[in-house]
Amino acid sequence: MSAAPAYSHYAQAAPQRYDFPGYREYDRFDSSPDISVVPGSGSRTKSSADSAVVLAKVTAIIMIVIALVCCARVFLSSMAVSTALEAREISSQINDARSDGSKLEVALSSLSNPSFVKQEAAALGMFAPDSDAVLKIDLSGDVVVTDAAGTLLLSGSADVIAQG
Fold first, then answer.
1. Hey, what long-range contacts does 125-130 have (CB within 8 A, 24 or more apart)?
2. Looking at the predicted structure, is the pLDDT value of residue 160 above 80?
């Protein structure tokens, strides 16, 4: 037995090992296969599979868009409802403020009435003074004296008060 390499890096023709008649006609290395190519658009199953994938993608995109539109609609509806509730609350606060203002006007008119003031003063033990006990002070005469420059003269004012 001789030691022959198991493989070689160089291309070599395969050794002929089969010795039956007509082997050469079945030899695939020497003859080209009998295949004829017909140009066309491809098989129908592949195009229908591709169209099914495209249809699934388009359907998924449309469903996502519809879901986003529905979410936006729900968001806008909730914002509208919350705005309406806030408007209703503000309207009730305005009505309360108006009724409180009306009550304060009535209280002001009753408290500023002179007869009510006299009754409350009498309840507190106050009374009106007699007419002869009232002193009247006349401040019509001016006792302030100024010089030509407009400064006040204290001595001149004291002389006017002493004269009377």
1. none
2. no
